[in-house]
Amino acid sequence: MSVAIKANRLTPYLFLAPAGIILIIALLYPIGYMVYASFLDWSPSQRIGQAEFIGLRNYINLMSDEAFRESFWVTIRFAAVVVTLEMALGVGLALLLDRNIPGMAVLRTVFILPMMIAPIVVGLMWRYMYHPTVGIFNRTLKDMGLEGIPWLSDSTWSFIAVVIADVWQWTPFIFILALAAMQSLPRSALEAAEIDGASEWQKIILIKLPLMMPVLIVTLLLRLIDAFKVLEVILVLTNGGPGLSTEILALRIFRTAQEFQELGEAAAMSNVLLMLLMAITIGMFAYNRVQEARAARQRAIAEKGDD
Amino acid sequence: MASQTQTRNPAFYALIAALVFMSAGPIALMLATSFKTNVDVYDASVSAFFFTPTIQNYETVLCNVLWYEPAHVDYCDPTFGRALKNSLIVGLISTGLTLVIGCMAAYALVRFRFMGRGTVSMTTLLMRMVPPAVLLVPVFGIWTFQFGLDQTYTGIILIYTAMNLPFVIWILQSFIVQVPIQLEEAARMDGANPFQVFFLVVLPIIQPGLAAAAIFTFRIAWNEFLLANALSGRSTRTVPVTIVNSITEYDIDWGVIMATGMLLAIPPILFTFVASKQIITGMTAGAVKG
């Protein structure tokens, strides 16, 4: 960071203290507690001290639990599919709308509406639209003389249904960030390309996308992490079903704690999810660092060339 | 703006219209359905958007806050009115707390060099990724058995404040960096202490950032279900929790549910229209700032 103010040695800590205290008691301590709880056979009616210490048994149970493995893969599949679709659609839309069109501000406002609405409500809206008889999709299909789709009662369709709802809600996030990044690109690079006679496509592939890469990677990381947090939409839409087709890990943790009252096992699952997210975050940061270093080198070379 | 090509292509505008329809359509459908009787919802001959509207569903939901007694309501369930009040209390207090505390922390991280700065910054960043589902078990255990905060406002407000802090600290840093340091130095010369500089000089300048942070924080507190569900009691339940409780039955009263959903969606929608610029700046700052 650029400039700093000289102050009493204690001042920064005084500024940080309230945040520090809250984060420690309400975030760090619970996470430590969760790690400990994952070694217990613990039900919600017991104080934690009364729960029996069972070592790694919760983790061993998880690994041999077919349903847990399935929901682990559902989570990975869900995150991979939604993030890929949202990145492609969001960046594509941004490329398409990155021009002087009247009413852009209004358009952007309309596009961010989906992400402002409560996930619970998004779930309800889509559940209504997917309704086998009164839902808008099947009503339209029937009006056209086609057969309705078993949106939420067939395991393949329910996964698709859940993906569509998430793409609807979160593509705008990628779109807005990509558009912002695009509009702050250095104009000189694009003008130089135009003078050299580059086509629209060449400008996109050779200049816009590479220059936006650092922002796109951070955007991807944020969206990927948030894709693992999704829970309410799926809870309301399918409650994980039919079968386990849409039971993502977060939902399984919720149900294991709430319905099955197995807090120790839910804590073990939480720990697995947290490890997974940490691995992704650290991996992406490392990758970003490498990318930034390379970009800096290229910039240095380009500047040298200009002399 | 980067590209100067002025498109006159009608296909382009058709595409934009389709996008607007796709993005706002489901919300419009929810709004329309909230004005439909259940009979109309289930009647295939009644169009999705064109029908005789009724405010009955809203009357049912809001019956105990209304100044008159709706004729069609036999039994008035006070759940929603109470939940609305709870959501407001929890949302407003946690947003206020998060902003004040987060802002101070962000300021310290930007403007002071001190031991452990890197660690604090990195830890905050990593905490942004903790999903609420991961906090569910430990927070339930700690709040219930150790702090005795289950079923209280304090318990919910505390966890929402903690959950939102990392994000708020993160986005406010990028606003504070842009405050001209000369202003702060001038205030110091005039004899202001660091806290006076912060509250009287820095805070007024970063108002747009504070607005963005406030909207994001309030939105999360207002929309959150999972932890509110685990931590709230009968009298402290928020709107998302009551909505989910009311759809567990097999037969859903779509009109009433959509009216409830609309009431929950209205504040965030209003925010979006009033402050979309701040929201977009906030999002960009939150993502781009490393």
Structure description:
The complex is a heterodimer of chains A (307) and B (290). Chain A contains 12 helices and 2 strands; from the N terminus they run H-E-E-H-H-H-H-H-H-H-H-H-H-H. Chain A has helices at residues 11-37, 57-64, 66-97, 104-116, 119-129, 136-143, 155-183, 187-195, 200-227, 232-237, 249-258, 263-306; strands at residues 40-41, 52-53. In chain A, strands 1-2 form a two-stranded antiparallel ribbon. In chain A, helix 2 crosses helix 12 (263-306) and helix 3 (66-97) packs parallel to helix 7 (155-183). Chain A is mainly alpha-helical and 307 residues long. The mean pLDDT of chain A is 89. By secondary structure, chain B is mainly α. Helix content of chain B is 71%, strand content 0%. In chain B, helix 4 runs antiparallel to helix 10 and helix 7 (153-176) runs antiparallel to helix 10. Chain B starts with 9 loop residues before the first helix and ends with a helix. Chains A and B meet through helix 1, helix 3, helix 4, helix 5 and helix 6 of A and helix 1, helix 4, helix 5, helix 6 and helix 7 of B.
